[in-house]
From TrEMBL:
Protein known as: Disease resistance protein Roq1-like winged-helix domain-containing protein
All residue ranges annotated as the Disease resistance protein Roq1-like winged-helix domain in the record: 5-21
Organism per entry: Vigna angularis var. angularis
Coiled coil: none
Keyword Cell membrane: no
Signal peptide: none
Ribosomal protein in keyword set: no
Keywords: Repeat
Biological processes per GO annotation: defense response
Cross-referenced PANTHER family: LEUCINE-RICH REPEAT-CONTAINING PROTEIN (PTHR11017), NB-ARC DOMAIN PROTEIN (PTHR11017:SF587)
Amino acid sequence: MPGCLKMHDLIQDMGRQIVRQEAPNPGERSRIWDYEDVIEILNEDYGSDKIQGIMLDPPQQEMVKWSGTEFEKMKCLRILIVRNTSFSSEPEHLPNHLRLLDWDNYPSKSFPPKFHPKKIV
């Protein structure tokens, strides 16, 4: 398919293993794709400024119980993909450095007032 980048599963797995080895604690990783890790980080509010990418796409509908401020600590977050997930409240903060925001069923009619992304695609 033109304009599409494909990656072999083994290369993807190798990249994920490298990220896991760099930081055994999911809240300290640069990328988080395991939905259980993402939900735990959001529920327990232990994310960090090391997180650059989050993909939350559980196999079944999941509920995140949070205050809505959990993204404040994630100052370097550039990619946020959320699917098949509902939230107990709307986000009060989204990082302005986001480049990609793909959030199915966003839990609010508007973005947080201080969200002014300059490089979003």
